[in-house]
Amino acid sequence: xxxxxxxGSRTGYLHGLDVVxxxxxxxxxxxxxxxxxxxxxxxxxxxxxxxxxVVDTFQFNDRFSFLGIATFLVVSxxxxxxxxERENPxxxxxxxxxxxxxxxxxxxxxxxxxxxxxxxxxxxxxxDRLGIDDLARGLVLANYFVTPLHAMIGVTWTxxxxxxxxxxxxxxxxxxxxxxxxPPLIAAGVCFTVVLAATGSRNPVVQELLKxxxxxxxxxxxxxxSLVHTGRVRIPGALAVGAVQLALFFWMDRAAExxxxxxxxxxxxxxxxxxxxxxxxxxxxxxxSTVIRNWSRRTYAIYLIHLSCVFVIMDHVSPLIxxxxxxxxxxxxxxxxxxxxxxxxxxxxxxxxxxxxxxxRQ
Length: 362
Hints:
The chain is mostly helical. The longest helix has 33 residues. The chain is globular.
């Protein structure tokens, strides 16, 4: 979500992935707007029409749940794999985490303040007040490893999954350079073993580890697309390893039951993989447009801040001006807030970090 789509000279800038990111941001935003109407037990003509004519017809998860998140996970797997050719494990892990952290800190603080002001900022009910200890845990995502869980930003569980993937990729970089098909295959075996051994545990740390393993195949499938695109793995080999990863995800979704979001998760991942494989080579006018490129750069800010905007604005404004105008105000607010966060938090932090980075391996 926060990783740029600029890669090495072998492939150039992946303009098509900008389009995929933009689509993912729209899907995630739509899902949570629709979710607000479901939580409040209200109907809206647009969500009703989409559910009836698109979601039900093509048998997606209700409200397109997991479609946007799966898209972001696959794209993340694609993009971060490129830099493994020129970054050592320490550089790789440090740069991934420092891309995530600044916006996470600021938006977590915003959500914490809103919750303590009595606002709903997520799907799950929250306590009337959260302490400094809750804020501190949220800033480093440690809130997912304790009970009770207070997820101030409802989508940050995916960042925990991504960081788990980053740790694995960092550890496997030497092997990824010599035998690039092997790390995603080993990951499948590790995830299968962990889930098999730990399913049923009520320990919050173990449960979070299960979640990381459950969604790791989605990121590994994105990694395989990247390896094929750069010519590091041939298509038959990638299809074989990909089949293992997809079968593992199917098992976790249906048999182990360690995923959530609906009955169409596997179908959703397949659709996202096909879309990404097609779009990764796109270089047309739309893909190269300034609008798409700038929007893509702001998708991480949109991803983190949109829930607070959706729930607070819809709760207070919808009864006054109706759902149509309220949703329009949500869209404007998300766009404006994301622009502020990108321009005054994300980019200054990136410039500061870039100035202090050691040179990458050429």
